[in-house]
Design goal:
single chain; mainly alpha; hpI Integrase, Chain A; 3-stranded antiparallel β-sheet; 18 helices; about 10% strand
Length: about 400
């Protein structure tokens, strides 16, 4: 956790100051206890949190584009944290502020009108980095930054009203690319990839295929999260993507059938007694590989090697898989299997489509944990089997 300098008091003159340059210099912010001084100190801390240089002129006077954006980013850095880690939402705000800060860093926020926002939106399009819908998202993120400034009386309300007149980019009316939705992965490709996956990752893929969990949810499985008392086991997630929508204390529950139980059984037995132990661990997999190599040695071990055999080095491996690492391993295995590279998030769409085709839309909605059926339809491909039968009969 980054430490910030404390606000100090110079009693002789009743002034507030902070130590800068490693304590070699003092930066005076104003009269002690004054609201303006407290606001200047907050902006000073905000700039430190965003790793930008602290300049006395940016602490005082009319807030510029840079000052407001940096302060707002620091505020959101504390807000968008989940399980001790920052979420991807903060990256959206960084991308949204990149262009205004590049072209108008010293512009007072109240002078940043619709023309400047349109210019930044055009530059986002020209960069080729973003899809049309994502450009609209970034524009909305910037407007929310201005709204944040209005709420703290750093920006005039009419500035926000003016920026709201900038329209969103329409489909077919923009030169930037369209967002390509994630498609389901064919079941045959999954089956072809499984033999090329490490044991733990193959188990994770099979569990996702049978439950429709998100990649991050299967990576986060711990021994204490699986209830094994009933005929159908239950995986109670400690946190998930949509837990902020639920009532306080409510948790997502994933039912685990007989096939999933058979996959999980050896991992639960291995972690028995440790409630916080991850069922799938790169560190444990590395340790198993080290022991396997030692068992298959053809030459005798030296004394130093025997010590390492008792405690193989696995410090550089994490205790749990991240979604990114999980996806990279699956993609590489798919290439080795000779099929089109795919990632684990596509397994959720495959599961949704299979459940909808067999049990209907409502069943798919329940199993995926969606509050609305229209969200489920985004995941589940439409089953055209019935439509094809009707077309064949009526010509």
């Amino acid at each position: 956790m980054k430490k910030f300098p404390k606000l100090c008091r110079f009693k002789a003159r009743n002034l507030a100051f902070v130590h800068i340059d490693g304590g070699k210099r003092k930066l005076y912010l104003g009269k002690w206890g004054a609201p303006e001084t407290e606001a200047a100190y907050r902006r000073f801390i905000a700039e430190l949190a965003a790793d930008v240089s602290v300049v006395a002129s940016s602490v005082r006077g009319e807030p510029t584009e840079r000052v407001v954006c940096v302060a707002e980013l620091a505020d959101r850095a504390e807000y968008y944290v989940k399980n001790g880690k920052q979420t991807g939402q903060l990256d959206r705000f960084r991308a949204a502020l990149e262009f205004p800060l590049r072209y108008f860093p010293a512009t007072p926020v109240d002078d940043f009108g619709p023309k400047k926002l349109l210019f930044c939106r055009d530059e986002m399009e020209k960069s080729g980095r973003f899809a049309r819908s994502y450009v609209n998202t970034l524009v909305n993120c910037f407007r929310s930054v201005v709204k944040w400034g209005v709420g703290r009386e750093l920006v005039r309300p009419e500035t926000l009203v003016a920026l709201q007149t900038v329209p969103a980019l329409k489909r077919g009316k923009s030169t930037t690319r369209e967002f390509e939705p994630v498609e389901l992965v064919p079941g045959d490709d999954v089956d072809a990839t499984l033999p090329f996956l490490p044991g733990q990752v193959a188990a994770m893929v099979r569990i996702q295929r049978l439950t429709g969990m998100r990649p991050g949810e299967v990576c986060a499985m711990r021994f204490g999260d699986v209830e094994t008392s009933g005929d159908v086991w239950v995986y109670v997630l400690r946190s998930d993507k949509t837990d902020w929508r639920r009532a306080v204390g409510a948790k997502k529950r994933v039912p685990l059938g007989p096939q999933v139980q058979a996959i999980l059984a050896p991992y639960l037995a291995e972690k028995s007694g440790d409630r916080d132990a991850f069922l799938f661990s790169p560190c444990a997999a590395a340790r198993d590989r080290a022991f396997e190599r030692r068992r298959n040695r053809k030459t005798p071990l030296t004394p130093s090697q025997r010590k390492r055999d008792a405690a193989p080095k696995t410090r550089r491996y994490a205790e749990s898989y991240s979604s990114e690492l999980y996806g990279k391993i699956v993609k590489k295995a798919a290439i080795r299997a000779g099929v089109e590279p795919w990632t684990p998030n596509r397994l959720r769409r495959l599961y949704a489509t299979e459940v909808r085709a067999k049990f209907g839309l409502e069943a798919a909605q329940i199993m995926l944990g969606h509050a609305r059926a229209d969200v489920t339809q985004i995941y589940a491909e439409r089953d055209f089997t019935k439509a094809a039968q009707i077309a064949a009969e009526i010509g």
